């Protein structure tokens, strides 16, 4: 099993002085999706793609995968 960390996403938001709500609006995702990311839950690749498009970044800029 693999563990996913979205800490890089939240650091990127801080670096860009962007609030989570702003990301929701810009990426067209729900606050529930942000909550799932905060808990390290699985989200769809569509959510990841929307976030990357909104932030102008790549997948490895917002998440890390670790073996359990």
Please outline what is shown here.
This protein has 68 residues and is mainly alpha-helical. Helices cover 54% and strands 12% of the residues.
General description of the model:
With 68 residues, this protein is mainly α. The protein has one domain: 434 Repressor (Amino-terminal Domain) (Orthogonal Bundle). Helix content is 54%, strand content 12%. The protein is built from 4 helices and 2 strands, in the order βααααβ. The radius of gyration is 11 Å and the shape is globular. The mean pLDDT is 95.
Defining key terms:
68 residues, mainly alpha, 12% strand
The percent of residues in helical segments reads 40-55%
Morphology:
globular
How many DSSP-defined strands?
2
Total count of helical runs of at least 4 residues: 4
Oligomeric assembly:
single chain
Q: What is the CATH architecture annotation?
A: Orthogonal Bundle
Measured by DSSP, the beta-strand proportion falls in: 5-15%
Question: How far is it from the N-terminal to the C-terminal residue, by CA?
Answer: 6 Å
- Name the average pLDDT: 95
Order of helices and strands: EHHHHE
Reading side by side through the largest sheet, how are the strands ordered? Answer: 1-2
Number of separate structural domains: 1
- Class by helix and strand content? mainly alpha
Major sheet characteristics: 2 strands, antiparallel
- Could you state the CATH homologous superfamily? lambda repressor-like DNA-binding domains
CATH topology: 434 Repressor (Amino-terminal Domain)
Low-confidence stretches: none
| CATH class identity | Mainly Alpha
Secondary-structure blueprint:
Layout (H helix, E strand, L loop, with lengths): L1 E4 L1 H9 L4 H8 L3 H9 L5 H11 L8 E4 L1
Antiparallel strand pairs: 1-2
């Amino acid at each position: 099993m693999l563990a996913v960390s979205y800490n890089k996403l939240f650091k990127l938001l801080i670096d860009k002085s962007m609030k989570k709500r702003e990301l929701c609006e810009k990426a067209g995702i729900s606050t529930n999706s942000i909550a799932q990311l905060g808990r390290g839950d699985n989200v769809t690749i569509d959510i990841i793609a929307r976030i990357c498009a909104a932030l102008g970044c790549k997948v490895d800029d917002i998440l890390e995968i670790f073996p359990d």
